[in-house]
Amino acid sequence: MLTVSEAPDDGRPTTNDASPAADDSPNSADPADEEGTASDLPDDVEALTDEVEALREEVDGLKAEREELNERLLRKAAELENVRRRMDREKKRRHVAGKETVLESMLEVLDDFERSLDAAQDLDVSEDPESAYETLKGGVEMVYRKFQDQLQSLGVEPIEAEGQPFDEQLHEAMMRQPSDDVEPGNVLQEVQKGYTMGDRVLRHSRVVVAAEPSESGSAADSA
């Protein structure tokens, strides 16, 4: 901006230049620096783009791996369920087959019992009761032996009790009774026979346990 000041003594006007001086502030941008920063940006953007793309591919790979693992787990679960169902069917089949085997052997014993009952009815009208009785007795004994044979074929054995030391794993004490003939703590009498099948006790033997002669027997006393 030009201003006209008062004229000097020589009469000529003086002109003052009010325009600002060149800005030497350190904040002013250097065109050369701007060009250098701009030239670096494309490389940084490209690197970031590559990194993002790599991460995206990694995520896609993890998703695919997860889906594959889920499919494997579902297949394994289905296989286990099929195995469980097959085992259940096989267990039921064996259970039914086992019952059939036992019942088949029992049916033969039932037939023998029916014949023994017929013989008992004939005893009432027999002209020789003694002979009919012996026939009936022999038939019953035969049925008993046959029944024992069938039990043995199934692995069922009677438990030895009388005279044996009391064993709570095999025997159930009903009472204690003094005895001079049996050692105290041994089985004096078998009330009900027990049976085992292999290592398993099907039924404990109910027994009377011998006590010292001075002791009094009582159904409430336990061995």
Furnish the topology, listing elements before pairings:
Elements lengths: L1 E3 L10 E3 L13 H95 L3 H25 L2 E3 L12 E8 L8 E6 L2 E3 L2 E4 L1 E7 L12
Parallel strand pairs: 4-8
Antiparallel strand pairs: 1-2, 3-6, 5-8, 6-7
Care to describe what's here?
- The chain is of the alpha+beta class and 223 residues long.
- Among the domains are: 54-154, Hemagglutinin Ectodomain, Chain B (Alpha-Beta Complex); 157-211, Head domain of nucleotide exchange factor GrpE (Nucleotide Exchange Factor Grpe, Chain A, domain 2).
- It has helices at 31-125, 129-153; strands at 2-4, 15-17, 156-158, 171-178, 187-192, 195-197, 200-203, 205-211.
- A three-stranded antiparallel sheet has the order 3-6-7. A three-stranded mixed sheet has the order 4-8-5, with no helix packed on it.
- A hairpin with a 2-residue loop joins β6 and β7.
- α1 (31-125) packs antiparallel against α2.
- It is elongated.
- It starts with a strand and ends in a 12-residue tail after the last strand.
- 8% of the residues are buried.
- It is found in: Cytoplasm.
- Pfam families: GrpE (PF01025).
